[in-house]
Amino acid sequence: MSRVQLALNVDDLDTAIAFYSKLFATEPAKVRPGYANFAIAEPPLKLVLIEGQAPGGTLNHLGVEVESTDEVAAAQARLAASGLTTATEDQVACCYAVQDKVWVDGPSGEPWEIYTVLHDVEMPGGQLRTVDPETGAPCCAVAEDATVVAGTACC
Questions:
Q1: 43 cis-preceded (ω within 30 degrees of 0)
Q2: Entry pTM
């Protein structure tokens, strides 16, 4: 099953978790320092809350979570064939998970990702990515087992 992802910037993570838990009648699937996500069954939605990255109530990014790497690859091929510029990230640690993904920008510059979660991974407090989406350069060092090790500040 695919589901739309909505990643929001929030001012206070605890307050946002309390509100969205009530709104969608479910508890978060994952909570880490400055980060939480909800896997909402109805409507199918992956809601991501990111604290302190931008003013609360603003859009961080949008996405579609799919079940497999093959679906990510098919999306990349379809998007590229339709003339859209894509950026692919394989085995990237982001948002406390190792993911395969493809990025495109909407007509007003809004970032969209189509991604699959390969497995969970812990990350240094406050860090949500290990790869700069603009350059593809590593933000942090990642061990072969995909655990994040000490490195520079993440994006």
A1: yes
A2: 0.76
CA 47 vs CA 100, 124, 135: distances in Å: 18, 21, 26
Instruction: Measure CA 24 to chain center.
Output: 20
The 10s digit of each residue's pLDDT in 44-96 is 999 999 998 899 999 999 999 999 999 999 999 999 999 999 999 999 888 88
> Which residue from 69, 72, 32, 66 is spatially nearest to 48, judged by alpha carbons?
32
Cα dihedral 99→90→63→48 (10° resolution): 30
Nearest to 133 by CA among 87, 95, 93: 87
Q: Hunting for tokens 């982001």 — which residue is that?
A: 94
Nearest-Å Rg of the Cα atoms of the chain is 15
Percent of the chain with pLDDT over 90: 67
